[in-house]
Design a protein that fits this description.
The complex is a heterodimer of chains A (240) and B (95). Helix content of chain A is 65%, strand content 0%. Chain A is an all-alpha fold and 240 residues long. In chain A, helix 5 runs antiparallel to helix 8. Chain B has 95 residues and is an alpha+beta fold. Chain B has helices at residues 32-43, 68-72; strands spanning 8-14, 22-28, 51-56. In chain B, a hairpin with a 7-residue loop joins strand 1 (8-14) and strand 2 (22-28). Chain B is flat, with a radius of gyration of 18 Å. The chains are: A mainly alpha (240), B alpha+beta (95). Chain B: This is Phenylacetate-CoA oxygenase subunit PaaB.
Chain lengths: 240, 95
């Protein structure tokens, strides 16, 4: 099944977001600080992979899209391709992205596009992702001086990638400025409760990041993609 | 970060409405709220539950193996305590 081309670009962009973040979270398998958290991150990764499969299937063949595209053809946000860093970076990335995804999917779930079904199902998954990131942000921000310092550092490092999320996607009937305002209210609320300082750096403009939706990606993305695609490229059509 | 300082929690899961919570296992978590979330991820990811309890393991008092005989043996030869003399109504499955 393919959608009307009007929502192709949006499905591709949101599908790539989910796919790439899923792979990043999967990198914690075997490396997470505690077993319980490893399973939690893997669950989130699998939720996102499920979303990516539905979204990419709306556009074309999911395997071809995931494993045989070049870096410049991916339309994901630069935020989701950022390396895991320490646990605080992973959670700051998740808090920023899951808040965006929850607000966006909530809107999409009430619409009437090929994405409506997926959005209605995924919004519950994503609400849990946000809840998980929020609880950790509160504990790390309001924890020890070391955890506070790291969480603050992570929130600031990723702040400049957050403006890109609100570039309008073609074919979606969304009030983007309102979405951004809601996102800011939600995220700043969490950061303040976590005794963290809301970063002051730019989120848009020349000093901010963000051309992922146009196919321009940051340096770590190429290495991630090489790891993600090498098996399929080395053994085309392999199954088990 | 290690779990050395994290307390142990016992997890009880209710699989369906009408059933009681059953012990599912244990896990480490920094506090009760996170223990609930970890329990959700570890013990209900295959749709096993509709409700979860977490209890600090230290709050549980267990019978000891030494007390096994005085505790349990006396009930072994008292078949009249089993309610076998009436029929269970149809449709009651979990009595």
């Amino acid at each position: 099944m393919t959608t009307a081309p009007t929502t192709h670009a949006a499905a591709l962009a949101l599908g790539d977001d989910a796919l790439v973040l899923s792979h990043r979270l999967g990198e914690w398998a075997g490396n997470a600080p505690v077993l319980e958290e490893e399973v939690a991150l893997a669950n989130i990764a699998l939720d996102l992979l499920g979303q990516a499969r539905v979204l990419l299937s709306l556009v074309g063949d999911e395997d071809e899209l995931a494993y045989l595209r070049e870096e410049r053809s991916f339309r994901n946000l630069q935020l989701v391709e950022q390396p895991n860093g320490d646990f605080a970076h992973t959670l700051a990335r998740q808090l920023y992205f899951s808040t965006y995804q929850r607000l966006l999917y909530r809107e999409l779930a009430t619409g009437d596009t090929p994405l409506t079904g997926l959005a209605a199902k995924a919004v519950k998954e994503v609400a849990y992702h946000q809840d998980h990131a929020e609880h950790w942000t509160l504990r790390l921000g309001d924890g020890t001086p070391e955890s506070h310092r790291r969480m603050q550092q992570a929130c600031e490092a990723l702040w400049r990638y957050t403006g890109e999320m609100f570039q309008p996607l073609d074919g979606l009937d969304i009030d983007w400025p309102q979405l951004e305002a809601d996102w800011l209210t939600s995220v700043t609320g969490v950061l303040e409760r976590a005794t963290l300082t809301v970063p002051e750096g730019p989120r848009t403009g020349a000093w901010a990041a963000g051309a992922g939706r146009q196919g321009l990606h940051t340096e770590p993305f190429g290495r991630m993609l090489a790891e993600m695609q090498h098996l399929h490229r080395s053994h085309p059509g392999a199954t088990w | 970060m290690t779990t050395d300082g994290w307390p142990l929690w016992e997890v009880f899961v209710r699989s369906r409405r009408g059933l009681s919570h059953t012990h599912a296992g244990s896990l480490h978590a920094p506090d009760a709220e996170m223990a609930l979330r970890n329990a959700r991820d570890l013990y209900t990811r295959r749709n096993e539950g509709v409700s979860i309890w977490v209890v600090p393991s230290t709050a549980i008092t267990a019978s000891s193996p030494d007390e096994k005989d005085p505790f349990f043996e006396p009930s072994a030869d008292k078949p009249y305590r089993h309610p076998t003399f009436y029929e269970i109504p149809e449709g009651v499955k979990h009595l």
